[in-house]
Amino acid sequence: MIELKCIDFRILTYNMRKAFLIQTKALVFFTGFAISILINNVSWSQACCSGGVPISNNIGIRPVDKNIFSVRAFYDANVLNSFYTGTDKLEDGTIKRLSQTIFLQGIYGINKRISINTMLSYVHNKRSLVDSPEQSTTTNGIGDATFLMQYMFLDKKETSFYITIGPKIPIGKNDILDESGILLAPDLQPGSGSWDFIGGLSFLRNKFIRQSMSLTINATTKVNTYAERFNGNQQYKYGNEIQLIAGISDNYFIKDKLINPGLLFRYWVRVEDLADGFVFPNTGGSWVFMVPSVNLGLSPSFSAFTSFEIPIYRNLTGTQLSTSLRVSFGFQYQFTL
Fold first, then answer.
1. What counts of helices (H) and strands (E) characterise the chain?
2. Which residues lie closer than 8 Å to 119 by C-beta, 6 or more apart?
């Protein structure tokens, strides 16, 4: 039976303010760190068919216990070199892109059931011509943020089930102009300009098949709203998204270090974008990614992690530039407040 308890909102408000202040201080370091990495000369290129930050890919993190604060800082690179029409790959692509993002994520446990999950980002986008890489367009800036609440419905020894809900907050710019004063395409903007809703259901089963193995299932939706473009003369809406993620991980010890390899499969569906209520061409589709990952426990409170996203299926609406490879790596530190 699910146990529901009353919440002391004075304590809740105090803890939320404390967690926010800690993350605000961390943002000072994070912003300097992000700029130092992302402003360097990069010969890669940026993301297609989506704008802003890949926020909804990074929210399937388990809530933490009461008074625990977990900080994750990680780098994400989405390389797009493949043109597709439907399921057919085209060989005459003229553009390549890369979206590089540094994330700072903080999770704070208010009590044993409720956690706050916030995430900030800094984005570097670059689009260039395949035959003339010196002809490129680059943008940098703070990306959008999330402020999510997580509620643990069930937390038994071997089984956990929790929900995640909250807004994506449009703090990133979506009105950057090129050298000629023309508004850049949505996929080159650091932010989306829209308030969006994120919701997720997550299931974790320990001792799956063997004692050290875990099963993870996660379903996420992102419902987008309209954003103003061209000084309010256009209303643009990114297509709503649904993601289904399922996979397994295992634990091994090498000397005194915990190694946690995993393999996930991510199914992502995005409907077409809308401009002033009409379908925007060459947007939307469905993808399946294989995601191998490794987590290395360097100490009880500090770990490093990396993952690779490899597309194994695409079915795109119209002709689009699509992900060829996506790489993430970062660190996590956990402590008690």
1. 1, 18
2. 55, 58, 59, 103, 104, 105, 106, 145, 146, 148
Task: Identify the three-state secondary structure at position 68.
Answer: strand
CB 291 within 8 A of CB 309: yes
pLDDT in tens, 271-292: 999 999 999 999 999 999 999 9
**Cα pseudo-dihedral 270, 275, 277, 282, rounded to 10:** -40
pLDDT tens digits, one per residue of 55-69: 555 566 788 999 999
The single-letter code of the amino acid at 276 is: D
Is residue 92 within 8 Å of residue 321, measured between CB atoms?
A: no
Give this prediction's pTM: 0.81
Report residue 282 as tokens.
Answer: 């060459």
How far apart are the C-alpha atoms of 127 and 186, rounded to whole Å?
A: 12
Taking Cα atoms as reference points, which of 204, 211, 275 lies closest to residue 246?
204
Of 145, 143, 151, give the one whose Cα is nearest residue 116: 151
Domains and CATH numbers, the chain: 9-336 (2.40.128.130)
8 Å CB contact between 293 and 74: no
